[in-house]
Amino acid sequence: GAGGARTRRATRPSSAARAAHELADGAWGLRQSPDRQRFTKAVADLGAVDPAWAGRLKRVVARGRCHKAGELLRAGNPDLAYQHAETAASLRPQEASTERTLGLIRMEQGLAAEAAQHFKNAIERNPDDSRLHGDVGRRLYLIDRYDEAMTATLRSLVLDDNPGSPAGWVHCPIGLLQPVAGYLESAFTSFDM
Known about the structure:
Helices cover 72% and strands 0% of the residues. It has ten helices and no strands. The chain is elongated, with a radius of gyration of 24 Å. The N and C termini lie far apart (83 Å).
C-alpha cells in the first residue's frame, strides 16, 4: 500500500465454520416455526458442529418464546402462551423464569396444583433469589397454598440483603403479614439470652 501501510488479506473461514454458519442460519430460520421437532433437530445438528453457538441460539430463542408467552397470557390466550413457554422450557430446562411463567399460565387456567409445581421447580432452579421466593409466595397464597406460601415468603425474607427494611416485606402477601411476623418474633425471642 501507499506510504508503507500494509493491507491485510481477508482469510476464508474454514469449512467447519462455514458449515456451522449454514446450520445456524437454518436453525434461526426455524425459530418461530410451530414444528418444534424440526427446530430441535436443527439445533442438535448445529450442536454437533459448534456446541457454543447452539447454546447461544437456544438461550436467545428460549427467552423470546418465554417473552411471547407472557404477552399471550396478558392478551388472554393462556393455551397458546403455554405452548410457547413449554418450547422455552424444552430449550433451556434450567431456567427459573420459564418455570415461573409456566406457573403463572397454569394459575390463570385455574390449575392450582400444576401452577404450584411449576413455582416449586422455579425455586429449585434458583434457590437463592429472594425476589423469586417472594413472588412465588404471593402466587401460592393466591391459589390457597398457605403453608407453601409461608415457607417461600419466609425464605424471601431470610435471603433478602436487608430483611429489616420495608422493601423486604413488599413480597409478603397481606394475609401472611401477621403469621410471618409472629413466626419471626418467636424465632428471635428463642435466641434471646
